[in-house]
Design a protein that fits this description.
single chain; about 130 residues; mainly alpha; two-stranded antiparallel sheet; about 5% strand
Length: about 130
């Protein structure tokens, strides 16, 4: 698991990519559940416009959990994406194609989620299915 989510070397196939997507969905659900539970036990106040405010030190659990989740999701998401691009025999820098308006995100998603990786060894390592 550690090698799948946190390193940038090597290759992963589509199955492991979809597994990583599933892990990120589960992590988001857990964080959402924890936020909901914290919301019910941390005192706050409702302002005149009807919004709920958590002030001062009681907001620290939200901040810590948010930062931990952001660091986890950005780092592991980038690591998995780069390894999947390596399986397609593309540099990790291809990730930046997503910043091309309209077509870039679609192209990236097709590359990493739908297309088969290169068969056999490529410049990034052994075949992800064989390894």
């Amino acid at each position: 698991m550690k090698k799948l989510l946190f390193t940038f070397e090597g290759r992963i196939n589509r199955q492991k990519m979809w597994f990583a997507v599933f892990i990120h969905i589960i992590a988001a659900a857990v964080v959402g559940l924890v936020f909901t539970l914290l919301w019910s036990v941390i005192p706050g106040s409702i302002s005149e416009d009807g919004t709920y405010h958590v002030e001062g030190a009681v907001a620290i659990p939200y901040i810590v959990l948010s930062l931990a989740y952001i660091i986890f999701s950005v780092w592991s998401g980038l690591a998995v994406a780069v390894k999947r691009l390596h399986d397609r025999n593309k540099s990790g820098w291809f990730f930046l194609i997503q910043f091309v308006p309209l077509i870039g995100s679609i192209w990236y998603l097709v590359e990493v989620l739908l297309l088969k990786g290169t068969t056999g060894t490529n410049r990034f390592g052994e075949d992800a299915i064989a390894a």
